[in-house]
Design a protein that fits this description.
Layout lengths: L6 E5 L6 H14 L4 E5 L5 H7 L7 H25 L3 E5 L2 H9 L5 H9 L7 E6 L2 H11 L10 H13 L5 E5 L4 H15 L6
Parallel strand pairs: 1-3, 1-4, 2-3, 4-5
Bound molecules: thymidine-5'-diphosphate (TYD).
């Protein structure tokens, strides 16, 4: 039996290795003849571009609004059309990024979740990559020449991490993001095979 296209999300703090896992999984799907698209939030749409161009952080409510509008646009422009066309979608960050990051700025995580659930299609599975905050800070420093973005301070990452760790959702698969990327990737594939045994990969 063929598997319906899946909507797969990767979440985690900056430096947890999401982008690498998104890339490895998309390549794996392609290699197995499973058509897929790789995408990310903030997206490349108008709100995503506005977010990436920020030099100073807006007030928390305004920041949450920008990410929510970007998600709405990204869903209608990329995610839903891809799923409709039979493509599996592998997405770097989604609703739980807003819950964790804008929650860390003092907004209510429950309220952000409710506002997003009102319009955002639920992911079929969310892989939450967990690594200790100091390790994430080391990785960010290494990968980006020590120029931390406006979203990446130690205190903030700690607050973001604690919200991610407290999330309760049966569709979240928590994975240790510390091992080498290939090992983490094999764990992701194992979990997908366990959940969808008819997925040939
Ligand atoms: P990130 O995935 O780090 O993009 P890149 O690797 O291309 O820099 O996302 C940029 C930042 O945006 C990241 O620090 C988390 C933040 N973010 C939010 O605060 N809320 C959200 O809803 C999303 C999607 C991202």
């Amino acid at each position: 039996m063929a598997q319906n296209p899946l909507f797969i999300v990767f979440e985690g703090i900056d430096g947890s290795g999401k982008s690498t896992q998104v890339r490895l999984l998309a390549a794996r799907f392609e290699a197995c003849g499973i058509p897929c698209v790789k995408t990310a939030e903030p997206s490349t749409g108008p709100f995503g571009r506005e977010i990436r161009s920020l030099v100073v952080r807006p007030a928390p409510e305004e920041e949450a609004r920008l990410f929510t509008e970007d998600r709405r646009d990204h869903l209608h422009r990329v995610i839903l059309p891809a799923l409709k066309a039979g493509l599996t979608v592998v997405c770097d960050r989604y609703v739980y990024s807003s819950v964790a990051y804008q929650g860390a700025r003092g907004l209510s995580p429950d309220r952000i979740l409710a506002e997003n659930r009102a319009f955002a299609r639920e992911a079929d599975v969310t892989f939450l990559l967990e690594i200790p905050v100091p390790e994430a800070m080391r990785r960010i420093g290494r990968g980006r020449g020590n120029s931390f973005s406006v979203f990446e301070g130690l205190e903030e990452l700690t607050a973001v991490d604690s919200i991610y760790r407290g999330l309760k959702d049966d569709l979240i698969q928590r994975i240790d993001g510390s091992p080498p990327a290939e090992e983490v990737h094999e764990r992701v594939v194992q979990i997908l095979r366990r959940i969808w045994p008819c997925l040939y990969m």
